[in-house]
Amino acid sequence: MRLSQFHLATVKEVPADAEIASHKLMLRAGMIRKLAAGLYTWSPLGLRVLRKVEAVVREEMDRAGAVELLMPTIQPRELWEESGRWAKFGPQLLKIRDRKEQEFCYAPTAEEVITDYARNELKSYKQLPVNFYQIQTKFRDEIRPRFGVMRAREFLMKDAYSFHLTQESLAETYQAMYDAYARIFARLGLEFRAVQADTGAIGGNASHEFQVLADSGEDALVFSDGSDYAANIEKAEALAPAAARPAPAQELKRVDTPRVRTVEDVAAHFGVPASAVLKTLLVQGKDGLVALCLRGDHEINEVKVGKLPEVGGEPVLATEEQILAVTGTRPGFIGPVGLPAEVPVIVDRSAAVLADFVCGGNADDTHYTGANWERDGRVTRVEDIRNVVEGDPSPDGKGTLRMARGIEVGHVFQLGAKYAEALGATVQDEAGKQRVMLMGCYGVGISRIVAAAIEQRHDEAGIVWPEPMAPWRVAVCVINPKGDAAVAAAAESLYAELSARGVETVLDDRGLRPGAMFADIELIGIPHRVVVSERGLAAGTLEYRKRDEAEARAITRDELFALLD
Ligand code: ATP
Ligand code: MG
Ligand code: MG
Ligand code: MG
């Protein structure tokens, strides 16, 4: 590729909503452009990288015996009614009507569609096991799309679904997918860990997430320093004994506060800054700790309800029924009115220092003072409240626990009979009996991987691609191509030779000044840079610099070819 014919569009300034390195760099490098919240155009440059990731994923899926197909992104409501997920999936499901008023959704995932396909296609145990996959756009109406393509609304996912007669067969394919994922992320040059994940309502121990390690990651991970034990925090929490729960640091004092309704009222009543008024209530629900996050004031009808630590981020509108389902009590005036008298903890996630907070109570016209939370002598923020903390013994008895942050790039899951049962997907077994198939599902966030890789590999100057993801392996930079025919010819010949050798090369023939040209090539993360200049030509050398090395050095053409072989 000649850059003069390409559309490279690097920019200096990025919008303030680009918070993390990968988002900023993808915008600066001109890999993506925002269309609307969570919707991005992949530029020609960005697409080259996305396709690289896609190709590695496809190769490893094929190698593992999965077979590719392609399903629609628009899925009929009826199928989702069959699985029971039309109502249950929640606001992430984008619902659509056609001109006949028929209802559809835009696929956030494809268990229903593949199970429908399987019940029509698969008749006999002889066709099993089979593992179908697709690489297809998904849409999830994320409550808080952010970090560019990292948490987008529309994104590219590889999703695979396997079908089996027996649990042993499912376990075998699950392992094959696990191994394929490990190969994918190793090939892409990413530092990752596979961690046990919670299987929620489906049960069992058969779910792992593949996490790219990065401090900016949204997920908390727990590892043992003395064994292979690794889990995401949800799974680790689920395993942890309840006794490990932190206890309030001091007694809450209950205070009558008639007609004190809003945060401002509370602050004025107690003579404290509004930041000392707690907006997040943690309550003991019937499934463990639950957070009810008030939106700015003490209107309880807008809360986020969920099991810790899934809560967090922006509050959502929850119905009284949802609150009831999670907490086991009905919400009321301020905070969880009607909860057992001992509201255990209340913490303000926005406050820098936690001490002596005022919080909502469990009856009208009541507040508590002195709220905070402490464990092992440390006051923690709500984000950090865990059953499991660094230094705890590992649940397998080997070593102590360490924590890290991760970005979920892949997820494998043994679904069992759930969808096949609901949709009546059966095959005939050896004895001629109809049997419900067992299923596994396996997702890879192809577009998220691009951002995750940058998060892990960048420096001041820009992106540092692992070679398999780079838009090109080599950039040949030409100093003054229009003014110096000999230099231009040497660069052309080098470009031709590299291309002939199968080395993906980009020729920077734009005629930019060296500083600007090098800055672009570094920003977009090309692993190898070669400069063709008048001086080098006279000396019979090229100036070579590896992206992750500090210094450039003079090498010959043959040395360059050897280095790239
Ligand atoms: P998350 O916990 O980050 O919301 P998830 O568990 O909801 O992800 P899965 O249903 O497991 O996601 O989907 C498979 C993969 O799709 C994830 O491992 C992730 O890499 C990717 N993915 C999920 N949601 C998004 C998104 N909003 N933007 C980009 N990639 C996503
Ligand atoms: Mg999600
Ligand atoms: Mg997840
Ligand atoms: Mg997941």
UniProtKB/TrEMBL annotation:
Entry-linked HAMAP family: Pro_tRNA_synth_type1
Reactions performed catalytically: tRNA(Pro) + L-proline + ATP = L-prolyl-tRNA(Pro) + AMP + diphosphate
Ranges where the Aminoacyl-transfer RNA synthetases class-II family profile domain occurs: 38-466
GO terms assigned for molecular function: aminoacyl-tRNA deacylase activity; ATP binding; proline-tRNA ligase activity
Assembly notes: Homodimer.
Principal subcellular localization: cytoplasm
Pfam families: HGTP_anticodon, tRNA-synt_2b, tRNA_edit
Annotated protein name in UniProt: Proline--tRNA ligase
Protein family per UniProt: Belongs to the class-II aminoacyl-tRNA synthetase family. ProS type 1 subfamily.
Record-linked CDD domains: ProRS-INS (cd04334), ProRS_anticodon_short (cd00861), ProRS_core_prok (cd00779)
EC id: 6.1.1.15
Enzyme class: ligase
PROSITE patterns assigned to the protein according to its UniProt record, in alphabetical order: AA_TRNA_LIGASE_II
Secretion signal span: none
